[in-house]
Amino acid sequence: MVSYVGWILLCYGSAAVLVHFMYGFLPRKRPENGKKLHYILVTHNHGNQMEWYLRALSWYARLHGESIKVTVLDEASRDDTLAIIERLRDQAGIELTTIGLKTVGEDEVTRHSAALAEEEVKVHVDLRVPQEAAKIPYVQA
């Protein structure tokens, strides 16, 4: 009986050492050139999904040990989208900015992204197009 417990402890210990070794030496996926990730979300009446999108970005930031910047370009939402964004503003790992616009076109997105810092990797997600949500980590479109 004692020998079985010894083998179990030995296997458990060697597995823990192997996990720590692999975590320390295997390369992890990082943004190119160490740049900060910046998600630009274009929304219009996305109150039902907005909380999940922001929580998914927060979980991604926490799991990867990074800080993610999120800018929400809202196209005059009449539902709870802006209220949800305000409530989740202090979510860990994300820096959240909201810009309300009457109409959001490609020129508005490029104008706002051009004003942003060059040391960021920008990910444009137009949530008005259902397939675009797949660009957000942990979200299936």
Inertia-based shape? elongated
Q: What is the helix tally?
A: 4
- Rg measurement, Å: 20 Å
Number of strands: 4
Largest sheet: 4 strands, parallel
The unreliable regions are none
Assign the structural class, choosing from mainly alpha, mainly beta, alpha/beta, alpha+beta, or little secondary structure: alpha/beta
Q: Give the distance, in angstroms, between the N- and C-terminal Cα atoms.
A: 52 Å
Which bin fits the share of residues in helices? 40-55%
The second-level CATH architecture is: Alpha-Beta Complex
Mean pLDDT: 82
The neighbouring-strand order within the major sheet is 3-2-1-4
* CATH class annotation: Alpha Beta
Strand content: 15-25%
Question: Quaternary state, please?
Answer: single chain
CATH-derived topology: Spore Coat Polysaccharide Biosynthesis Protein SpsA, Chain A
The CATH superfamily bears the name Spore Coat Polysaccharide Biosynthesis Protein SpsA, Chain A
| Topology as a string of helices (H) and strands (E) | HEHEHEHE
Question: What's the structural blueprint in terms of helices and strands?
Answer:
Blueprint: H1 2-25, E1 36-43, H2 47-64, E2 68-75, H3 81-87, E3 94-101, H4 106-114, E4 120-126
Parallel strand pairs: 1-2, 1-4, 2-3
Structure overview:
With 141 residues, the chain is α/β, with parallel strands linked by helices. It has one domain (32-135): Spore Coat Polysaccharide Biosynthesis Protein SpsA, Chain A, CATH 3.90.550.10. The protein is 41% helix and 22% strand. The protein is built from 4 helices and 4 strands; from the N terminus they run αβαβαβαβ. It has helices spanning 2-25, 47-64, 81-87, 106-114; strands at residues 36-43, 68-75, 94-101, 120-126. It has a 4-stranded parallel beta sheet with strand order 3-2-1-4. α2 packs parallel to α3. The longest helix is centred in the first third of the chain and has 24 residues, at 2-25. The radius of gyration is 20 Å and the shape is elongated. The mean pLDDT is 82.
